[in-house]
Design brief:
The protein contains 4 helices and 5 strands, in the order E-H-H-E-E-E-H-E-H. It is α+β, with helices and mostly antiparallel strands.
Length: about 140
């Protein structure tokens, strides 16, 4: 497996990967806009994992708000899950964050995605039970 930074040309393949990995997605046009924004704001934190044939098999995007980085679009092809690739993607992101001097990383997990909780716990993430997340569509 090989890692590289994401580019705008990767979007169609990534959108398919995210669908296959059952991520909660916005409509494709909205995802494309968000993808372009991520590449503009955090180009060094948008990482891909490729197999030997150069096919994208995993993704992870980091976002940084000036205080804490967060995990976005962590996905691995279903047939390759539970083989350490998600852990490798987290490690790649952590390495990129350390280079930038960022010391905190958070991950939001959709309430229905309970099967991923042990993954994050095994990697040292701790559940924040003292805050609630609110959002508003604009």
């Amino acid at each position: 497996m090989k890692k590289r930074l994401a580019s705008i040309e990767d979007f169609n393949n990534l959108y398919k990967l995210w669908q296959e990995a059952s991520l909660q997605l916005y409509p494709e046009e909205d995802e494309l806009k968000r993808y372009k924004d991520m590449l503009t704001l955090n180009p060094d934190l948008c990482l891909l994992l490729l197999n030997e044939e150069g096919v994208i098999v995993g993704s992870i995007f980091g976002a940084f708000d000036g205080r804490t980085a967060s995990v976005h679009r962590l996905a691995v092809l279903p047939e390759l899950q539970k083989k350490g690739l998600g852990k490798k993607l987290i490690e790649y992101l952590e390495e990129a964050l350390r280079i930038r001097g960022i010391k905190k990383l958070s991950a939001q997990v959709h309430i229905s995605n309970t099967q991923v909780l042990p993954f994050y716990q095994k990697l040292g993430f701790q559940e924040m039970t003292y805050v609630r997340t609110f959002y508003k569509d604009l």
